[in-house]
Amino acid sequence: MPWLRRRERLLFRTHESPFGNPAWAVGRILQYEGELYRVTRWVELRPVLLERGGSVGEWEVWGRKMSEREVRRELADVEDQMLDKGDL
Asked: Is 65 helix (H, G, I), strand (E, B) or coil?
């Protein structure tokens, strides 16, 4: 789906690995700069060399801005899940 890539943007870089931060997992929703984004992919970069020796991994987190319609649908799905569990 090449049209998805056009709307995708780099959100931030991190030294935390994809498996080390489930809140940023692909498919999850996060707020960045006041907007809601769905995480679309992680890109592993070259390790960053440290002054005292060694290195640390670095990744880019990419996402696609969610439309108002997608946000409403997501909220409705969460509400349905809560009602099914009896959480409300």
From this structure: strand
Q: pLDDT digits over 17-54, tens only? A: 888 889 999 999 999 999 999 999 999 999 999 999 99
Q: Please name which of 13, 8, 22 lies closest in space to residue 65, comparing C-alpha atoms.
A: 8
Full 3-state SS string of the chain:
CHHHHHHEEEEEEECCCHHHCHHHCCCCEEEECCEEEEEEEEEECCCEECCCCCEECCEEEEEEECCHHHHHHHHHHHHHHHHHHCCC
State pTM to two decimals: 0.76
Neighbours of 59 (CB within 10 A): 20
